[in-house]
Amino acid sequence: MLTLQKPHRHVETVIHSEVLIDCRIENLYYGDFRAIRDCDLSIERGKITAFIGPSGCGKSTVLRCMNRMNDLVQGFRIDGQIHFQGQDIYHPSVDPVAVRRHIGMVFQQPNPFAMSIYKNVAFGLKLNRVKDDIPGRVEDALRRAGLWDEVKDKLKSSALALSGGQQQRLCIARAIATEPQVLLMDEPCSALDPIATRRIEELMLQLKERYTIVIVTHNLHQAQRIADKTAFMYVDTSNSSRTGFLVEYADTHRLFNHPQQEYTLQYLRGEFS
After folding, report:
1. 40: closest CA among 69, 96, 93, 83?
2. Architecture of domain 18-268 in this structure
């Protein structure tokens, strides 16, 4: 069972160089298919880390490893370790549900439940048996997601009546209501228009003062705008298969302006997508 304590969240005490998640993936399989090889990187506390790369290179697969969402896929297995605050989250003694309490997730398509706005945000709190001040926690999460002023007078209304951008911010509110330490975001803006995308980006920059954020994005400009560090992944097709691997991982400014690997340079030039 994961029993890690949540750190003090005062912004001034965040240590930006502290490794929060350490990924050492040698191989990752779905049945006989090797989806990932050689992906070693460290996620630092209080920063936004972006994964970029062509479709099918395994960005989302690596992201989902960080809170054991891939456990739900038949045939999944991993060679290697992923440490969260020094503890291997794939150790047999660790409960995946406990991992997900500390490492929340927002998906590509907004996925509010078919219930009221209030119940959507309160859902995770009740699931985790939080009993004290549920209304206050719901309001706080909606405020942090930048949605409170838009929905405070219609909390009993269906969440499905919200716009796409509002629904995604509601999903973010639902994810942060339980106070995770890490927020994983799998292409959270791909289904949104440019205005809604900008609002989500501004929200992520605000939230990184309180949470460590890891995002998968196909939008290179988005990675440049919001990410502190960027990981570029590519696809190895040498064995008549498609196996993703990490090519380069660096501070965002350096990776985009001074890439060290030829694959990275070619991708940034638009020579393949």
Report:
1. 83
2. 3-Layer(aba) Sandwich (3.40)
